């Protein structure tokens, strides 16, 4: 039921693809849009990426495709093409996540679609963008991260860069960027009456997320060597630590008054052995980090979480995705929901009405 949701009444036609574009459409559906997902016979599932055969048992529902209506259509069949064309003639938004040229070859590129429906917002999700030397090349999250400059700073100083799963390019710099672009185009359409093409590139979305690093580097506040900076795990007050049970806590006590609470909460004697005034002196970081590591190793993770729960020391337990379901804060907010028997992240953000 979408009545009362911010995008109620918005009609979206999604051409089924993998990960980033479905994530954008999941967000639109969560916000109340009526999303019709057009899939090819045989479906678009994980097996099409990982090379597995179709499972004997039905697969569990995919959270990225929740909230949709589905239509299976063989776009080589003239009757199916006519049906899809009629749907697009009255839709508000089209979303596709194929390489450049695929939709044109299918006969549903921007030119004929916008000619028939001038108000259509045509959302395109690609890795490299619709133009440029790499536009037609294959790639995945890690490749877009690599070219955008977002991957190189990630990982330990003494090892290769480590990808943050596929969170950054596929979802943050991809699907979420596409959703923002679609909403912006809809806002502009309210003034002009015209739709347009939204060209969302995961490479550009990932690059967009490096804005802070560019700003810090320009001010001389970011060392271009990995593992020697404020937010990359080098700073003792912004890192993770191993606890007595082998699990971890995350520390983000950047501000001096939070840092003081961290030191006092770990061990009042630390305030005498660590000078809080030297918090940002990088020469002191290795020694300070060793002292903090020793202190955190004395107790299990959940004891530290409880110990710091009522302070502003910015200490949090590092939870697995499955543990996160049960954390009291997440439970109180309904951060995770159950759909068709499967626990998954719930819609966000929240609205007052």
SSE blueprint and pairings:
Layout lengths: L10 E5 L4 H11 L3 E6 L7 H4 L17 E5 L5 H13 L2 E4 L5 H5 L3 H7 L4 E6 L14 H8 L18 H26 L4 E5 H7 L2 H8 L19 E5 L5 E5 L3 H11 L3 H4 L11 H12 L4 H8 L6 E3 L3 H4 L3 H6 L2 E4 L2 E4 L8
Parallel strand pairs: 1-2, 1-4, 2-3, 4-5, 5-6
Antiparallel strand pairs: 7-8, 8-9, 10-11
Helix pairs in contact: 1-7, 6-7, 6-8, 7-8
Structural notes for this entry:
This protein is 38% helix and 15% strand. The chain contains 15 helices and 11 strands. It has helices spanning 20-30, 47-50, 78-90, 102-106, 110-116, 141-148, 167-192, 202-208, 211-218, 256-266, 270-273, 285-296, 301-308, 321-324, 328-333, and strands spanning 11-15, 34-39, 68-72, 93-96, 121-126, 197-201, 238-242, 248-252, 315-317, 336-339, 342-345. It has a 6-stranded parallel beta sheet, sandwiched between helices. It has a 3-stranded antiparallel beta sheet with strand order 7-8-9, with helices on one face. Strands 10-11 form a two-stranded antiparallel sheet. It is elongated and about 80 Å long.
Per DSSP E runs of 2 or more residues, the count of β-strands stands at 11
Strand content: 5-15%
Query: How would you characterize the largest beta sheet?
Result: 6 strands, parallel
The best one-word shape is: elongated
Biggest sheet, spatial arrangement of strands? 3-2-1-4-5-6
The helix content, as a percent range, equals 25-40%
Number of helices: 15
């Amino acid at each position: 039921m979408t009545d009362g949701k911010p995008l109620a009444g918005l009609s979206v036609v999604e051409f089924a693809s993998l990960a980033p574009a479905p994530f954008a459409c999941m967000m639109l559906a969560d916000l109340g849009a009526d999303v019709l997902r057009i899939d090819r016979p045989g479906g678009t599932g994980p097996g099409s990426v990982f090379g597995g055969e179709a499972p004997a048992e039905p697969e569990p529902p995919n959270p990225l495709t929740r909230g949709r209506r589905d239509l299976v259509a063989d776009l080589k069949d003239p009757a199916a093409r006519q049906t899809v064309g009629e749907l697009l003639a009255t839709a508000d938004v089209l979303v596709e996540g194929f390489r450049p040229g695929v939709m044109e070859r299918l006969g549903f590129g921007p030119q004929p679609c916008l000619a028939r429906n001038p108000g259509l917002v045509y959302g395109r999700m690609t890795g490299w963008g619709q133009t440029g030397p790499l536009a037609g090349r294959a790639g995945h999250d890690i490749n877009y991260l690599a070219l955008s400059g977002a991957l190189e700073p990630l990982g330990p100083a003494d090892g290769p860069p480590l990808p943050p799963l596929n969170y950054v390019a596929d979802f943050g710099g991809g699907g979420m960027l596409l959703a923002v672009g679609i909403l912006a185009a809809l806002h502009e359409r309210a003034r002009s009456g015209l739709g347009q093409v939204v060209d969302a590139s995961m490479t550009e979305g990932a690059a967009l997320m490096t804005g802070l690093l560019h700003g810090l580097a320009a001010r001389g506040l970011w060392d271009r060597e990995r593992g020697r900076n404020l937010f990359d795990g080098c700073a003792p007050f912004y890192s993770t630590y191993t606890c007595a049970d082998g699990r971890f806590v995350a520390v983000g006590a950047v501000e001096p008054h939070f840092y003081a609470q961290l030191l006092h909460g770990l061990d009042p004697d630390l305030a005498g052995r660590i000078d809080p005034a030297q918090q940002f002196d990088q020469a002191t970081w290795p020694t300070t980090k060793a002292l903090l590591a020793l202190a955190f190793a004395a107790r299990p993770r959940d004891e530290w979480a409880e110990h710091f729960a009522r302070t502003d020391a910015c200490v949090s337990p590092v939870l697995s995705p499955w543990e996160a379901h049960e954390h009291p804060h997440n439970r109180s907010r309904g951060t995770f929901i159950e759909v068709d028997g499967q626990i998954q992240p719930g819609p966000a953000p929240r609205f007052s009405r």
